[in-house]
Amino acid sequence: MENIKKIKIIIGFIYLLILSFFLYYFFSKFSYSEITNYTFIQKNRDYLIDFKEKNFIFIILTFIFFTIIWIFFLGFGSPICLIGGFIFGKWAGCLIILISLSSGATFLYMFSKYFFKDFIKKKFLMKYQNFESKFKKNEFFFMIIYRLIGAIPFPIANILPVIFNVNIINYFFGSLLGLMPSVFVIAALGSGFESIINDYDTTPSIIDLISSSEIYIPIILFFLLIIIVFFLKKFFYKNSL
């Protein structure tokens, strides 16, 4: 237990160090008023697109690396999906985000399994023990459903399969397939915001946003996904949550 506390302190310190360095570097280049200004975002959009086209592989690798670090330190997936959709578009963005999230979650899973297995079991086994029979019955299939439904907060969902000793290959590809619908919807929304910035010279109104097919279609898909997930949760997670 003492070793776990030391590891958590070290990880927390490294995380704060990286975050502080990033924030210092970023805000030494730009002020808060600049990054929240629509004109600033629009002008730098062209620069970012040009930079992305000239350094596409570098941007992808940087994004994957950042996402792995983000997920490793218990970050949520939604911001990554929006940013990825904004930068890469909904189709390429969806693929890149899925690889990034699944890789980050898998690294976190392996790390947690090695260092925190007993702690995670003690913390969560009683609450989620009904999952054990489902994982044993068809591990890969249930891993897909587990990711698709997503009824558990993302950081906890990443480490919970440690309890059930899920195979790493099943964990990675189950995450990849299970996260696909939600990732695509959120990435499409991020891509829609990028299109809106391209189409409007001034800050668009709420009416402008929701009347754009690039925005309202992902929102409709999002609500449809919620309905589907609701019924799947009732069927697969009966007496489990």
Topology of this protein?
Layout (H helix, E strand, L loop, with lengths): L1 H28 L2 H4 L2 H17 L1 H17 L5 H11 L1 H26 L1 H12 L2 H7 L1 H11 L4 H6 L8 H11 L1 H20 L6 H5 L2 H24 L5
Helix pairs in contact: 4-6, 5-6, 5-12, 6-11, 6-12, 8-9, 9-11, 12-14
Query: Main sheet, how many strands, which sense, barrel?
Result: none
Radius of gyration: 20 Å
Apparent shape: globular
Note the beta-strand portion. under 5%
Number of domains: 1
Mean pLDDT: 82
**How much helix is in the residues?**
over 70%
How would you spell out the order of helices and strands? Answer: HHHHHHHHHHHHHH
Helix/strand/pairing class, anyone? Answer: mainly alpha
Euclidean distance between termini CA atoms: 28 Å
> How large is the count of helical segments?
14
What are the segments in which pLDDT stays under 50 over at least 5 consecutive residues? none
Number of strands: 0
What does this molecule look like?
The protein has 241 residues and is mainly alpha-helical. The chain has one domain (31-189, 227-236). Helix content is 83%, strand content 0%. It has 14 helices and no strands. The protein has helices spanning 2-29, 32-35, 38-54, 56-72, 78-88, 90-115, 117-128, 131-137, 139-149, 154-159, 168-178, 180-199, 206-210, 213-236.
